[in-house]
Amino acid sequence: MTTATLDVSVWRGGAQGRYETYQVPLRENQTVLDVVTWVQRNLDATLSYRFACRVGMCGSCAMTVNGRPRWTCRTHVAKVAKHGRLTIAPLENLPVIKDLAADMTPFFEKWQAAKGVFAPSKTREQPVEQITPDNAARRAADAGIECINCGVCYAACDTVRWNSDYLGPAALNRAWTLVNDVRDAGNAARLTAVAAAGGCHACHSHQSCQEHCPLALNPTASIAGLKRRTLQAYLRGEIKP
Ligand code: SF4
Ligand code: SF4
Ligand code: FES
Description:
Layout: E1 5-12, E2 18-25, H1 32-42, E3 62-65, E4 68-71, H2 77-80, E5 85-89, E6 96-98, E7 101-102, H3 105-113, H4 136-144, H5 152-156, H6 158-162, H7 169-179, H8 187-195, H9 208-212, H10 219-235
Parallel strand pairs: 1-5
Antiparallel strand pairs: 1-2, 3-4, 3-5, 6-7
């Protein structure tokens, strides 16, 4: 009896690396992360990659699978293999540390550059703000709040590819959730940061980020909100050109 196998080309090395091809037994309900793990456990223990939760919670397992950025733990081989083949590479638009592990440092530095950190407006002693569920700003923040920083949208964005200064969809989406958080006091600095070169106005609105986000979030809509809000801030004199 022969066992069905999959031909899997896996990126090995750093930026100047190459693809190595492995034969991996085909299994029912196998995910792309299962395939990578099988190679590492059975064929080459030096294969580097990243994962943690295996259930679509942490965002650390994102890789390029047959040319498209995906969460590998939530991608079934049956859905993406073409003629019994898979090609797996690190996320694009980021430096490669080794093999399938991309360096997320620029991604998180841009998150910080977009002032993606909550700036409290109250002290511990003051009462907590009441925000009703039907509040428009809260609904706008809710739409983007579930982002887990997996980097899939960042890898899918052509503007990031062309312009290394562009903050990218995830950082700008995060900024938009905070712009709509009435408890936050950091908006003057945040709107100045996202209105600068490489900020929201560099987005071409082609929605690749929305199309690829595994959580079906819509960073394009968040960025459109920032474009409107920064323009208002200019006109009101809240930020300087
Ligand atoms: S917006 Fe979606 S694709 Fe982008 S980092 Fe957040 S969860 Fe990942
Ligand atoms: S809509 Fe903007 S952020 Fe999203 S992929 Fe296109 S250029 Fe990038
Ligand atoms: S391992 Fe956590 S999302 Fe895939």
